[in-house]
Every structure is written in structure tokens, then in C-alpha cells.
Amino acid sequence: MYRFYRGFFNQRISFCKGRTSLISAFPRATNFSTSNIDAIRPRRAILYVPGNDRRKIEKLSNLKVDCAVLDCEDGVAINKKSEARNVIREITESFDFKNIEFAVRINSLDSGLAEEDLLSILNCRNLPDTLMVPKVESADDIIWIHDKLKLLSKHGSEAKKINLVFFIESAKSLLDLRQICEKAVDLSKKGPFQFEGLVFGSDDFCADIGATRTTEATELLTARQLFVIVAKSFKVQAIDMVHINYKDEAGLLKICEEGARMGFTGKQIIHPSQVPIVQRAFSPSHEKVEWAKELIRLFKKHQKEGKGAFTFRGAMIDKPLLLQAENIIKMSEQLND
């Protein structure tokens, strides 16, 4: 068995060495979205704001963040939950979110508070764009959300679907993620929500498996990779973990670029100062857009000449790289809309 694994890894190392020239042709790495994700509005940065803190909510008008999440869960003390619901309901009637996606994170289903959160939110004059559900553990939780949204909604059967983004925060939910997503996709077809994304809850995940959270997050590497693979297999967004030390800008940039290389489409943030760093890291750089445009132009030229693969900036270019270049252009155009 040892010889088998040693041989396998030696083969992989040899293969990777042969791909060095291709890798070096790329500018700074960022995320390559799968084909259907570019139809979903960008969520490069999702900023949590306590739902009971009117002052912080009103400051959103000065930010250019993709998604603002008015929080009823972890960001709100247990004795302030009712106040958070009231403030959020009042905010929906008066506050102009402009181009910011307006989302609400309810309490977890096992808290006993989720139904009351939903009842309050769904009776707002203006519904949030997106509902975020923490600590989803099974497909049964998705069924519960579906049934409650249908039962409690006062906006009628013709109401626009609310976007659904849910959190994976335990070992069990990660291992069952495929089944959970299958149920969400199935219920999205004719149900009251549109399944659009997944959020990785790193700190609760670490607590669940008994891991020690470190700055480098090596203890979460396998979990994050598996999380991205499942999310992308269902063509939904994958939102990465929070970087808690909001003053550590260098560390934030490093972990953002790592997440983008892994395939994450965005990141959770807890402070407005993190917005520009995160959104820039999960956007195609000017150099990458230029690279993609030139690659596409040359690919079309070679196709007309009846040629297949060709060399571009020291790398062999074929159809998979063309698809990646096209995704970069789509993302760039979407962000400039």
C-alpha cells in the first residue's frame, strides 16, 4: 500500500512539473466561475450588520459593498432579538439600499427563534432580496424553510422568489452537503425560493470537530476544498470564512487570494474596512481581463485558420483555457453593469 501511494504521488508531481509553463502564463490568480454562476448577482463581500443597530445599518448608504446582511443570529444578543426584528421591519419601509443586496440572516432552526424571524420578515412591506439560513444540517431543514416560506408569506403566490443562501457549519452537514443541495435545487423549481449560494461557517465547524482555529487555516483546508467542489457541482456561489482580525489587512488579502484560487466566489466580512480588499481580490484584475481578451481574440483567429492548440505567452492554449477566459470576461462585464 505504501508503494502504491508513493508511486501515485510521484506521478502527480511529475505531471505538475510538466504544467509549470501553463501556470506561469496566468496573471494574479482569482476565481474562475462555473458557467451558470455568472447569472447570479455578485457576492464578493457579504457584510454582517447587527439587525438591532440602526446606526450601523444607516451607514450602509456610504458603502459600496455587494451584499449587506442584517443579522438576527450571532451578531445580536439573546435579549435583543425582538428589537432586531422590529428595526429590520422598519428599515425595509424607509431605507434605500441602492445597489446593495439586502439580505437577512435568521436564527438557526434549532434555536426555536427561526419561525418568529420569518414571520416578521415576510410581513415586511418590502421583502429582502435574500434569506440567509445558518447551521443547516440536513435536507429536512431545507424542506422546513420551503414549507414555512409558503405558509407565512403574505405576498401571494405570484410574489418574486426570495434568494436562498445557507450555511454549512458542522462535520455532518458538510458530509451530507450533496443531499442538502439536491433538495434545495429540487424545491427551487416551483417553490418560494431560488437557491443561489453556500456559506462556510469556519468557527462553528472548528468547534464541532475539535480543531484549533489558526491564522493560516491549514486545519480547514480539506473542508474548504470539499465545500467548494460541492458548491460548484451545483452551480451556486461558494462564500468563504470570516477573517476575524479586521485590522490585519495583509493577512486578509492573503487569505482572500488563497480562497479565490481555490474556487470561492466571495467572502464573509465583519467590518467596512474589509470591503475594498475583499471585493478587489474576488474580481478579475485589469491584467487578467486583458489576458482573457487577447486569448479569445487569438483563439478565434486560429480557429478560422483551421488550427487547434496554439502557444500564447509561453503556454499551450486549448478549449478549457478558452472557457476560463470567457468566464473572466463575463465576470468583468457583470461587475461593470
TrEMBL record:
It comes from the Eukaryota. GO terms for cellular component: mitochondrion. Substrate binds at R105, E169. Pfam families: HpcH_HpaI (PF03328). Residues 44-272 form the HpcH/HpaI aldolase/citrate lyase domain. Keywords: Acetylation, Hydrolase, Lyase, Magnesium, Metal-binding, Mitochondrion, Transferase, Transit peptide. Mg(2+) binds at E169, D204. GO terms for biological process: regulation of cobalamin metabolic process. Gene3D superfamilies: Phosphoenolpyruvate-binding domains. PANTHER family: CITRAMALYL-COA LYASE, MITOCHONDRIAL, CITRATE LYASE SUBUNIT BETA-RELATED. Belongs to the HpcH/HpaI aldolase family. Citrate lyase beta subunit-like subfamily. This is Citramalyl-CoA lyase, mitochondrial. The lineage of its organism: Eukaryota, Metazoa, Ecdysozoa, Arthropoda, Chelicerata.
